[in-house]
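Continued from yesterday's entry.
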Amino acid sequence: MATRPLATEVDSARGWLTVAAAFVSMAVVFGVAYSFGAFFAPMAAEFGTGSGATSIVFSFTAFCWFALGSVSGRAVDRFGPRPVLLVGAAALAAGLVTTSWVAHLWVGYLTYGLGVGIAVACGYVPMVAVVGGWFDRRRGVALAVAVAGIGVGTLAGAPVAAALIDAYGWRRTNVIFAIGGTLLLVACAVVARRPPEPQGDSPLPVRALVRTPAFRSLYASTLLASLALFVPFVFLPAFAVEAGVDPVPAATIVGVIGVASVVGRLAIGALADRIGRIRTYQVSYATLAVSFLAWLAAASVGRAWTLPLLLVFAIVLGIGYGGWIALQPTVVAELFGLRGLGGLVGLIYTAGGIGALLGPPLAGLVIDTTGGYRWSVAGAMLCGVGAFLALLPLNRGEFHRSR
């Protein structure tokens, strides 16, 4: 096991190298995962499956990365980022290559879901925890830059996948993503460094932690927001194509979510400094909920307005989503401290796994049953409103009183 850097190296250049590695690792794993909307239609056509059955591929993937985040988070606390990232690289390669061979969709649930799910679990939560441990004064900025990689990956992944699928088919595109993604994750493992030993009290036992009002608020809000968030990543490109938008521009709408999330993550620090991190975190959830009004309007108007309304939806959703992802590790650290941060963030993210597992298949079932998207979009919006309401009782003093 490598020797930890000294505590005096916090906020140093070594930390920023790890930020760069975190940025790239998140861009890679989320670029692959969030490109699934481009694979959705060709896979459904080849296997002859409906919206609900095909969406399970993505839902199971997201469930895996959220559920396994608690495992990878504890692993990085113990072993550091390098071995965790190497496991992620191996899983990504194996999952995508084997998915390119599948003859039945249910096999793809396992190959893609486990391969990409493990890769995201290794490239996201552990790196958030590592970056948080490298910084004190500039933690908010460092985390915002690191998680901006998610937005960049989202921006690039979906349109690149759509173009490659058009040229080579969805099976060969998986192989191309496997090769490129694996090489980049290995490079990240070489660069990433373990942070100094954090100071402060030992973390609460899990049994005591889950009884705190602050943890319950964070868990409930993450669950409800995840039920809403992953619906557009699966169904938005298909909705746009059915409304008359060409496939590549339709996939690019998901990329717009990524661009807006980058802006949201990088700009959110100024608002957090002004009104507080927790309150800004709450505002991010409210923004996410309100965004679905634009998609609901796009499902109800003529085709001339569809693309502009979907772009509005993608921008507003991306800003809210970006604020949520950028601030959650900082809010968790503010409420519970830095010790054991990786395991704690991963534990909260299991709620996201449940939401991701249930949200898209339920939305797909409603789409198949009703023959349209309106009720699914309205349901996602209500889940977003519920997530915001679940956060309203949250404040910093609440946790300390519960201890």
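--- second protein ---
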Amino acid sequence: MSRVPGWIGRLGAGLSEMGERLNEKRRDEDADPDNGDPSDPSGGEQEHVPPPPAYAPQVAPRPDPVAAVPWGMRVAAEAGWRLLVLAGTLWVLMKVISAVQLVVLAFVAALLITALLQPTVARLRRLGLPRGLATAVTAILGFVIMGLVGWFVVWQVMENANELSGQVQDGIDDLRKWLLNSPFHVTEDQINDIATSLREAVGANTEELTSAGLEGVTVIVEALTGILLAMFSTLFLLYDGKRIWQWFLKLVPEQARPGIAGAGPRAWRTLTAYVRGTVIVAMIDAIFIGIGIYFLGVPMAVPLAVIIFLASFVPLVGAVVSGALAVVVALVTQGVFTAVMALAVVLAVQQIEGHILQPFILGRAVRVHPLAVILSVAAGGMVAGIGGAVVAVPLVAVTNTVVGYLRSYARETALKQRPRPQGATPTDVSLTDPPPQQ
């Protein structure tokens, strides 16, 4: 009986020791980070991966995807979506302008006429006339002169139409004889083929020509509407232009209002200088080319001179087209020699205009590169026809002036708002001050 309790005690001590060992083993497994999950079906055992050898190459960590994109590409992407937004805005604006194209062109034409007539209103105001009377006198006088010029051109063309038709027929016969006897080896059959092709083209396009004539009625109605809109707009701009400008400034955000208020008068001076200079240059072109073709015996020299004057308001292109018209009239009425002499006169006047008149008359008020002139005229003609070609260059000139002023204004504003440096600076010490005595 005495041996049984001893055996039980040794069994209990062994079980206690075994439990302590199991507890220690669990604690070691929980503390070991490389040990697998006990719930792993594989029993929590993981294969030990040996470290790489010393001679293995070092693998750099992967960079952030944003940092991996080159700087230039990130800048292009940032600028790209902004350009897309700007292009979309311009597209919507062009659609709106196209929908009210007649109103826009009439208002722009009114601005150009106002820039031409406004100095006369100011001069009459200085002489003591009331604003309303000065505006009425200037507007009536200007519109009457423009109407007389248009009436004179139409009257001269109608008056000389029969005579010009006979001269054109005689000129065509002379041109035909000259081509047959020229060194170009043109034969009678080739000339007849060209004439036949022209007649067939006219006959085949009779319906198109008829529809164009019917559309011409609509064009005339739209032109008369645009003229009336331009006249009324000119009257209000001459009479109340200052208050209209002040009302427009109220629509501008308050922060941008000082810059726009300063850019407006400068833009107006640029537009006025452009219109005055263009009128003077166009008048000189018309007078000298008209005198030249008059002494060459070209018929309708005066109406051609007036057409040259009006066409000169389209820079570069208008002078070329109107000069070519004068040369063609000289060719079909007076022959090849007269046409060559008329071409020489037109080219000489245009060279004087491009190298002397425009730099001297327009000066620095309108600084637009010839490439910008050509591109703007082409773009304006594609968008809005002849009216767009006329207003394209003054629009570019005014935009150039406004952008340049706003850039300078922003720079000056930034310099004024910059905090002043603390303490003495090298600029605070005068160069004439004597050095301090030691």
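The chain has a mean pLDDT of 75. The first helix runs from residue 3 to 31. Will compare against the first tomorrow.
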